[in-house]
Amino acid sequence: MIDRNFSEEGQNFVNDEQEGQTISKRPVFLLVLVILSSINIGISTLGALSGMLGYKPDKDMIKKEMLEFANMREQLEKGNAEDFIYIIDQMEGVALNMFKHFQQYNSFQFLFLVLGLAGVILMYRAKKLGFHFYILYTLGLVVLPYFFNPITGIPTILTIVGIIYGGIWVFMYSRNLHWLKD
């Protein structure tokens, strides 16, 4: 009888230990999100670094960009979608302001990207603070165009799409909050 109780207690201890291991195991979904986010942030960081450290768009690149806006405007006129031309005009203004403040824009973008990468790394290490950093990174990229443009000069659809896209990523990361620790 003593042996049976002892073995049952030992069995319970093993089960508790196994449950503790399953709780501490990193969720696969979190690992997938971390990999995808790291790739996205890494590529964006390279672009921001090159813009921050001296690469500036030349006149030909700006001219090419303006021609693309003109082509979009022309296609909207042909397709009887003239109501949307003002969005193209706003996007053209945003692009021109970004070109005008290229190094400053990329510097701020770089800071937000570093914040996002820190958030991803912290979440990978099971720190809840990383989730909050990631939220700030997401919101930072949405409001970044407002640093260099008037509020009325930014297409509302650009902000809405940025919030929805960032919100989807924040929502996916929030599915792993149970595993993150304070």
Alpha-beta content class: mainly alpha
Biggest sheet details: none
SSE ordering: HHHHHHH
**Overall number of strands:** 0
Report how far the terminal alpha carbons are from each other: 44 Å
Beta-strand share of residues: under 5%
**Considering DSSP H and I runs of 4 or more, what fraction of the residues is helical?**
over 70%
Give unreliable regions as ranges.
4-22
Gross morphology is elongated
Mean pLDDT: 86
Number of domains: 1
Q: What Rg is obtained from the alpha carbons, in whole angstroms?
A: 24 Å
| Count of helix runs | 7
In short:
By secondary structure, this protein is an all-alpha fold. It has helices spanning 2-24, 28-52, 59-78, 85-100, 102-124, 129-148, 156-174.
Keywords summarizing the entry:
mainly alpha, 182 residues
Write the layout of secondary structure elements.
Blueprint: H1 2-24, H2 28-52, H3 59-78, H4 85-100, H5 102-124, H6 129-148, H7 156-174
Helix pairs in contact: 2-5, 3-4, 5-6, 6-7
Can you characterise this structure?
The protein has 182 residues and is an all-alpha fold. The chain has one domain (27-174). The chain is built from seven helices and no strands. The protein has helices at 2-24, 28-52, 59-78, 85-100, 102-124, 129-148, 156-174. Helix 5 (102-124) runs antiparallel to helix 6 (129-148). 14% of the residues are buried. Mean pLDDT is 86; it is low at 4-22.
